[in-house]
Amino acid sequence: MKKNIKSFDLEDLKEELKSIGEKPFRAEQIFKWLFVEKVKEFEEMTNISKELRQKLEENYDICNFQIERKLVSKDGTIKYLFNIDGINNVETVLMKYKYGYSVCVSCQIGCKMGCKFCASTGIPFVRSLTPGEIVEQILAIEQDTGNRVSNVVFMGIGEPMDNFENIMKTIAILNNPKGFAIGARHMSVSTSGVVPRIYEFADRNAQSTLAISLHSPNNETRSSMMPVNKAYPIEELMKACKYYMEKTNRRISFEYALSKGYNDSIEDAEKLSQLFHKTLGHLNLVHVNLIPINKIENGAYDQSSIESIMKFRDYLNSKGITATIRRELGSDIEAACGQLRRKNLKTEEAN
Ligand code: SAH
Hints:
Structural class: alpha/beta
Distance between the termini: 28 Å
Largest sheet: 10 strands, mixed
Order of helices and strands: EHHHEEEEEEEHEHEHEHHHEHEHEH
Bound molecules: S-adenosyl-L-homocysteine
Number of helices: 12
Helix content: 25-40%
Radius of gyration: 21 Å
Number of strands: 14
Shape: globular
C-alpha cells in the first residue's frame, strides 16, 4: 500500500524525501501545496519537476475523501459522511461559532470503549485512522465550504488515547505554521479516561486542551455508563488529572452529560464538587462542561430538564467550580455529541 503523503509532518517529509534521493527543501514546497494551497493532485504542484511529480504519484497516496453524504442543520452545523478508502466511512462535523469554524474529527473507524450512552458504540471497531486521514477530514471540509477552520476537537467517533501517536502527529501537522497553522491551544483532545495516556499527554507537554469525559462522580454509576471505569476508576483518573495540572498548569475540561434521574441530582453535584476539592485541589484549572445527554436509539438515558442542568451548574459555581452549559449544535441532523455512527447503507446492513 502507498504511504499517505498527508500523514507526514514537515520534518518527517524532509527525511522521507531524502530517503528517495530528493532534496529536503522540496518537502516545504509539497507541504504548502497540500495544506495551504489545498491541491487535490500532485499534478497541480507546478513548481515541482514533472519527474518528481511522477515519482510522488507512483509512491504516495494523496488521500482525497469523497463526500458520501452531507447534512446541513438549521443552526448551520454540517455533518459529513466521507468515504475514506472505497470501503470505510467516517463522520465529521463542522460547527460555526462567533470566533470561527470548528471541526469535530473522528479518529477511529468505530470505537472500542463501549460507553452505553453513545451512538458510536453500536458499530463494530475496524481500525484507527492515520494522521493523514484525520487531517484530510479538515482539508475536505475547507475545500468544500471555502472556510478556514480555526479550531479542532478530537471528539468524533473513536478514542483518541487509543490512537495516541497518530493524534500527536496530527496535532503537529495541524499546528505547523507552514501549513494549517492552527494554534495548539485551539485543539482539544477528549478521552473517556485512558489513564496511562493522560500521563503521557502531560509528559509530552502537548499544548492542546485535555477534555475528560467524566459523567459521574461515583464509581458504580460511572462503570455502568462507561466500561473503561472498571479498568481505571475515578480515583486513578483524578490522580492522573492532578499530575497533568501540576505538570502543565493547564486547565482540564470535564465533560458531564446529564441524564434525568441518573447523574443530575444536587447530591450528584455535591459529590462532584467534593471529588474535585478532595482529589484535585487546583480548582482554578477545572472547567466543567455540562451537556444535556442526547438520547440515542433504544438508549436508556433520558435528557435532563434545562432547570436541573441550571441548578447543577449553579451549585458547582457556588462551590468555586467553573461550570457552563454547552450549547447543542446540529441535533436535528444527528450531529450533536454522541450521535455520530458512520451511518450508511452498507454498515446499516452489516449491523
Ligand atoms: N472517546 C472520546 C471522544 C469521543 S466522544 C471520549 O470519550 O471522550 C466525545 C464526547 O461526547 C465525550 O465527552 C462523550 O462522553 C460525549 N458523548 C457521547 N455520547 C453522548 C451522548 N449521547 N450525549 C452527550 N454526550 C455524549
